[in-house]
Structures are given as structure tokens and as C-alpha cells.
Amino acid sequence: MANVGKRFYLVGTRYTFPIESNRVMMTLVTERKGQVIAERYVKLAAQRRELEAIVEDIKTKRPDVVFCTIVGEAVGVFYDLCRAAGVLDRTVVASLTITEAEVA
Questions:
Q1: Which residues lie below 8 Å from residue 42, measured CB to CB, with a gap of 6+?
Q2: Is 26 inside a domain boundary?
């Protein structure tokens, strides 16, 4: 947080692991005097327009960090949308669920 900022946007797939991961992240952020500015969830088979709406919200809210726990095919779409919208140029994206395959 000292290096990138204290405003966090949490986004994940709606099931136990992302919800609990985000709960832990919220606790850590709050304990360190940071701010969670949004917590959003999508279904496993999230549609592109749902992800587009989240990326637009991220652009509007301008968090310092996006903590992403989206899984499945939606994660690739989410990162593509973030890149196209310029989010990845100015915002750190952290994830517990992305692999080298999705990064590529």
C-alpha cells in the first residue's frame, strides 16, 4: 500500500473462495487504513456486458489496486477489457487466481 496506494476495488466470481478471499483482503485493507471502494461479483459464466460494466466502474472510480478473483473464461475477457480501457496502464491488478496462461 505504501508503494501503490490505498484505494482497492475487489472483483471476483460469486462462490466461496473469492468471497472469502475478498473478506480477508477487506480486513487487511481496513487494518492498514486503506479503503475498499467497491466489491463486485459475477457468475461463473459471466457475460461480456456484465464485465464491461465493471470495467467502466473501475475507470470511473480510479482505484489504486484492483484485487481480482475472477475465474474461468471470464477472467481472460476481464483482462482484455481492462487493457483496452487503459486500466492496466494506471492501476495495479493483483490476483490469487490467474496463471501464466491467462497473463499471456
A1: 11, 12, 13, 14, 50, 51, 54, 70, 74
A2: yes
Residue 42, domain extent: 7-103
Q: Does pTM top 0.85 for this prediction?
A: yes
Q: What is the full per-residue pLDDT of the chain (104 aa) written as tens digits?
A: 999 999 999 999 999 999 999 999 999 999 999 999 999 999 999 999 999 999 999 999 999 999 999 998 899 999 999 999 999 999 999 998 777 776 66
Backbone dihedral angles phi then psi of residue 71, each to the nearest 5 degrees: -125, 170
At 32, is the secondary structure helix, strand, or coil? coil
- Report yes or no on 2 lying in a domain: no
For the record, the C-alpha cell of 41 comes out as: 461479483
User: CATH number, domain at 96?
Assistant: 3.40.50.2300
